[in-house]
Amino acid sequence: MDQPAFVHQAVLLSLLLFALGTLGVFLRRNVITVLMSIELMLNGANLAFVAFSRSAGTLDGQVLVFFVMVVAAAEAAVGLAIVIALHRHKDSLDVDAFHVMKG
Amino acid sequence: MDQVLFYAAAGLAVMSALVVIGQRNPIYSAFALIVTLCSLSVIFGLLGSPFIAALQVIVYAGAIMVLFLFVLMLLNVKREADTPGHGGRVLGAIALALVAVLVALAGGVLMRSEPGPAPAFDASTRRMAEILFSPHFLYVFEATSILILAALVGAIALAKKDY
């Protein structure tokens, strides 16, 4: 199977997605949107793994993507549970509302 | 043909990612993120990884995004306030500058690197299963089930009403 011509472009796209995710983490104020931006960053990393695995011809990158997906699922479950607990506590989802450790 | 499909999916992914971070209504952000994940699945397929492409749709667009939408609708989330957070703009500008440097550096390296000879590549589901269940990754694979169980118990404990 020939190497597709767009492996380089895929790596650039992964950088772009990671960058957009970083921007979202800084610019958004809703906790859930911040979590979604983190998912965007994880997907950028996954795309880089797949692209490099394709150009290196080994499958280790693909296995790593599998584990990243598992950890992302666990992260989303725990993160959203924390968001529910915070919402019950402060009745807000604004990141600025959560600025004390206790209280 | 593959080239055209790649650029179409890449453009769709970038545009919907822009909607994810530019949208003040988190429900719209979530739906835009589903579009991003599905177009990334197309790109995974084009890169010769059908297993990851299927997993992307099933796990990400299916399971994780349903979890997000479930919480968004459970909490009855309002539109984000119009006032920018203090320092958010400055931090965003710094992040943008750092990211621009990163993209420029990586782009420079990538443009200079020659595409090597195409190595043999077989990422079929059978190959992936053989690797995942080989002694090399088997214990890590089994450890993820403990991680999932811990996350499950932790999520229930955190979201419970009275503890």
Q: What does the secondary structure layout of this molecule look like, with pairings?
A:
The complex is a heterodimer of chains A (about 100) and B (about 160).
Chain A: H1 7-27, H2 31-56, H3 60-90
Helix pairs in contact in A: 1-2, 2-3
Chain B: H1 2-22, H2 26-46, H3 50-74, H4 88-112, H5 125-132, H6 135-159
**Secondary structure: helix percent of chain B:** over 70%
Distance between the termini of chain A: 60 Å
In the CATH scheme, what's the topology name of chain A? Helix Hairpins
CATH class call of the domain at 1-78 in chain B: Mainly Alpha
Task: Let me know the CATH homologous superfamily of the domain at 1-78 in chain B.
Answer: NADH-ubiquinone/plastoquinone oxidoreductase chain 6, subunit NuoJ
The number of strands of chain A is 0
State the largest interface: A-B, 74 and 84 residues
Beta-strand proportion of chain B:
under 5%
- What number of structural domains do the residues of chain A give? 1
CATH fold-type name of the domain at 1-78 in chain B = Four Helix Bundle (Hemerythrin (Met), subunit A)
* Average pLDDT score of chain A: 88
Query: Which structural class fits the helix and strand makeup of chain B?
Result: mainly alpha
Tell me what the structure shows.
The complex is a heterodimer of chains A (about 100) and B (about 160). Chain A has one domain: Orthogonal Bundle (Helix Hairpins), CATH 1.10.287. Chain A is about 75% helix and about 0% strand. Chain A contains three helices and no strands. In chain A, helix 1 packs antiparallel against helix 2 (about 30-55) and helix 2 (about 30-55) packs antiparallel against helix 3 (about 60-90). The termini of chain A are far apart. Among the domains of chain B are: about 1-80, Up-down Bundle (Four Helix Bundle (Hemerythrin (Met), subunit A)); about 135-163. Chain B is built from six helices and no strands. The longest helix of chain B is centred in the middle third of the chain and has 25 residues, at about 50-75. At the A-B interface, helix 1, helix 2 and helix 3 of A face helix 1, helix 2, helix 3, helix 4 and helix 5 of B.
